[in-house]
Amino acid sequence: MTATATPARGVSGNILTSDTGGATRLASAPFGHALIAAGERDSRIVGLTADLGKYTDIHLFAERFPQRFFQVGMAEQNLIGIAAGLARTGWVPFTTTYCVFATRRAYDFIAIGAALGRANVKIVAGLPGLTTGYGGTHQGIEDLALMRAIPNLVVIDPCDATEMAQATAAAAAHDGPVYLRLLRGQVPVVFDPATHRFAIGAANLVRDGGDAAIISTGLMTGRALDAATTLAAEGINVAVLHLPTLKPFDHEAVLSLLARVPRVVVAENHVIHGGLASAVADAVADAGLAVRLQRIGIPDCFCESGSLPYLVRRYAMDAPSIAAAVHRVLDPRPTPG
Amino acid sequence: MNATLQPRVADPVKLAAVAQRLRLHVLRMAERVGQGYVGQGLGISDLLTVLYFHFLRHDPQRPDWVERDRFILSIGHYAIGLYAALAEAGIIPVDELDSYGADGSRLEMSAPETLTGVEMTGGSLGHGFGQAVGMALGQRLAGRDARTVVLMSDGELQEGSTWEAAMAAAHHRLDRLIAFVDHNRQQADGPPERVMGIESIPDKFRAFGWHAQRIDGNDRMAIVAALDAALTAPAGMPRVIVLDTVMGCGVPLFANREKNHFIRVGADEWAIARRQASEVA
Ligand SMILES: Cc1ncc(C[n+]2csc(CCOP(=O)(O)OP(=O)(O)O)c2C)c(N)n1
Ligand SMILES: [Mg+2]
Predict the structure, then answer these.
(1) CA nearest A162: which of A207, A197, A120?
(2) How would residue A103 be classed by pLDDT, with cut points 50, 70 and 90?
(3) Measured between alpha carbons, how far is A200 from A122 in angstroms, rounded to an integer?
(4) What is the rounded average pLDDT for all residues in chain B?
(5) Is B192 near chain A, with CB under 8 Å?
(6) CA dihedral A133, B131, A274, A124 (to 10 degrees)
(7) A24-80 confidence digits (pLDDT tens)
(8) What is residue A36's three-state secondary structure?
(9) Which residues of B touch A135 (CB under 8 A)?
């Protein structure tokens, strides 16, 4: 586990990539800038996109390193195939598209082209979970489940701009395939870049408390911290364990927290099956711990289209819903269903 | 040739009036959400007018009539154009257009198959063509002479699935399948010639065993004539009509503007756009 990070002050937890949810601090295109920095350090880094350069911030890298950038057109399978070929000739390709197109369309190409032989391919995928109101074709609601199921792949869901930048650098330094969820455009800053340290595979206890725990990933950690603040005002002290790397999974951090605080809400910007909650449940079952667990995430359905604030409320993904789930795990009566 | 494949006579005056109403519907919807895919909706209004008011055999009272010709919108983001046509054709209420893109509305930004008149959910690009091939096979297997018409985009020509479908349609000799390609020379990162070259589109289709035509896709009577030619083309091959269109066509303010995937529209420009769309015929 890395050192406890201090969340930046005054930030709303309602983090949305295209609706910044009233966040007071924003950073512009953290991935694009971090990739340029990585490209300056390492001349093997190349960029690729499938007709979504302007929409994934990689156009900044393309402007800085035009010779090291390849537009492959709207062809996601080919995007991964070409990247795997580049990796096999010594380059470090960063590919971008949306989560849905990377994981649904190009799944076999990721599994075989990138993961099976541990090709050094980085897949940076936008519109994770509910960060677009565009509807079922564009909302990457089950990508973590799909990617987590593939051997050899590192799977990262960053919380904010700070972690987006740090995870980009970490992916560049890691020798092997990485799936990295992208927060694009104006991205809220939750973690202070001066103190936060992202490391692949390391969870982060961002707040301690003994009454209940929230384990969260991605942008849900911002909302989890908001929920914890509300609950603290009610006298309930909640620990928040941020788990930006779904795979490899930080068993030690999860199990040591849950052995101490066996009441947990798991919050993820993803369907409630196959992602973080499933990973936590697996770890708990393997260790034989008795834990009360509530899940916050998208239920087993394709989501509607609509505005993000509407959708986040509709699918109970907001901070008040997390706080309500904490109340449920604290309730000594058995939870129905 | 089957009698039901006979070309019909088109009324240019009627079609012009319909196309104008579609464009005004598109503008009304786009204005409400602040943008939407107004350029695509305007650019494709001429095709949708000819399809829904001249070519397709359908019954607005019975949208699920099994003998109907099917229109498949692979490019879900063109929904704004389809909604205008469905409303004008009486398949969905005109008043409902006001709910385009609103929370809880059936008229999602990308056309969902839960809406009456939408044959499949497009939007994840590269799906419609394959499904259209399946529908054309299915209609033939069922012994129906219904036609299957699919609309895809120039950007979609870059997806591998497009060429898998093209190969299958020719192999299975699906001559009641008509594919349209909206060649508006735009995709998300710019014009296809810079993103990933796709020319020559008709030659590619011919090489795959298709009957191919290329026309001005904003000329309604040229679309009518191309459909006539498609109906009378040699049996046993699928037909493709490549439409060279102008994004924002019918509203000079938009059509002449520097474009990308989205046309940016200032709040004060909608009134001008409406006026321009009302003037041209
Ligand atoms: C499989 C897939 N990949 C990427 C996208 C994202 N996307 C939406 S529209 C678009 C451009 C596609 O080209 P085209 O349909 O010609 O665009 P337009 O003419 O509307 O600008 C892209 C890449 C998508 N919807 N589906
Ligand atoms: Mg186009």
Answers:
(1) A197
(2) very high
(3) 14
(4) 95
(5) yes
(6) -60
(7) 799 999 999 999 999 999 999 999 999 999 999 999 999 999 999 999 999 999 999
(8) helix
(9) 108-110, 112, 123
Q: Best mutation site among A51, A56, A80 for ligand 1, i.e. most ligand atoms within 8 A of its Cβ?
A: A51
Q: Compare CB distances from A55 to B123, B188, B195 and report the shortest one's residue.
A: B188
Give the pLDDT confidence of A203-218 residue by residue, as tens digits: 999 999 999 999 999 9
Choose among A139, A233, A127: nearest CA to A184.
A127
On chain A, the residues whose CB falls within 8 A of the CB of B112 are 135-136, 305
What does the mean pLDDT of chain A come to? 93
B1: pLDDT strictly greater than 60 = no
pLDDT value at residue A8? 35
Q: Are A23 and A189 in contact (CB under 8 A)?
A: yes
Residue A275 CA, ligand 1 centroid: distance in Å:
28
Ligand 1 mean position, distance from CA A51 (Å): 7
**Residue A20, pLDDT score:** 53
* pTM of the predicted model as reported, rounded to 2 decimal places: 0.94
The two tokens of residue A249 are 């999974």
Confidence of residue B8 (pLDDT cuts 50, 70, 90): confident
Is B81 an interface residue toward A (CB < 8 Å)? no
Nearest-angstrom CA–CA distance, B33 and B101: 7
Q: In this predicted structure, what is the pLDDT of residue A196?
A: 97
Read off the pLDDT of each residue in A264-270 and give the average, rounded to a whole number: 98
Classify residue B175: in a domain, yes or no: yes
Beta carbons of B30 and B41 less than 8 angstroms apart: yes
What is the per-residue pLDDT across B225-247, written as a single tens digit (0 to 9) for each? 999 999 999 999 999 999 999 99
Residue B1 lies in a domain: no
Task: Identify which of A52, A72, A307 has the shortest CB distance to residue B196.
Answer: A72
Ranges of H-type helices in chain B:
12-33, 38-43, 45-50, 79-88, 128-141, 160-171, 192-195, 201-207, 220-232, 252-255, 269-279
Residues with beta carbon inside 6 Å of ligand 1? Answer: A 51-52, 74, 101, 105; B 40, 75, 77, 123-126, 153-156, 184, 186-188, 261
Domains of chain A as residue ranges with CATH:
4-188 (3.40.50.970), 204-330 (3.40.50.920)
- Give me the domain span that covers residue B218: 11-279
Contact B103 A310 (CB under 8 A): yes
* Ligand 2 centroid – CA A96 distance (Å): 20
For residue B132, the domain's CATH number is 3.40.50.970
**What is the rounded CA–CA span in Å between residue B78 and residue B100?**
12
Q: Which of A54, A78, A134 sits opposite B109 (nearest CB)?
A: A134
Q: Is B222 contained in some domain?
A: yes
Q: Which atom of ligand 1 is nearest to the CA of B261?
A: 21
In a domain, B158, yes or no: yes
pLDDT of A334 > 90? The answer is no
**Domain count of the fold of chain B:** 1
Nearest to A160 by CA among A186, A182, A188: A188
Please name the helix (run of DSSP H) or strand (run of DSSP E) that holds residue A254, with its range, or none.
Answer: helix A251-260
Q: How far, in Å, CA of B113 to CA of B111, rounded?
A: 7
Q: Which residues make beta-bridge pairs with A213?
A: A239, A264
- C-alpha A232/C-alpha B205 separation (Å) is 65
* Mean pLDDT, range A301-321, rounded to an integer: 96
